[in-house]
Amino acid sequence: MLNKKDSIAFFRDRCKQHNLSMTPQRMAIYQELIKSKSHPDADDIFRRIRNIFPDISLDTVYRTLSKFTEIGAVHIVEGYGEAKRYDPDTNNHHHFRCRECNKIVDFQNKSYDNLSIPRAFQKNFKVTNIKIILEGTCDKCIKKS
Ligand SMILES: [Zn+2]
Ligand SMILES: [Zn+2]
Fold first, then answer.
1. Are 107 and 96 in contact (CB under 8 A)?
2. Helix 24-35 vs helix 4-17: angle between axes, to the nearest 10 degrees?
3. Closest ligand to 96 CA?
4. In the chain, which end has fewer C-beta atoms inside a 10 angstrom radius, N or C?
5. 2 pLDDT exceeds 90?
């Protein structure tokens, strides 16, 4: 789980390492990302950030988010051809995705982390990360139906 203070320290560190200057806009976009628990897309961030920076363009938000991805400060959630979703939690964790409302929820699971790699991959591939995606209907959507 993300801790705000640690995340910001991590973000500062990433920016410094990659000579990316820490502008108020960038900081605000990053903070919006860590505030949101739902893995927002650029449009979500844009709508929220406009309250603070009325002149900001969607394009700037896009470019900022892809810069963050480039320097490893955020990850892109594996998608299905829809808008890119961003994840500020770069630690190993897994996702539940609701097919109804598209919400993505983080979770930790030790036995998933330690799944064995299929033999076909063991030989010639190097697996560096295991990410499990559970799909279905979330609690809120179940209640609604
Ligand atoms: Zn749902
Ligand atoms: Zn996540």
1. yes
2. 140
3. 2
4. C
5. no
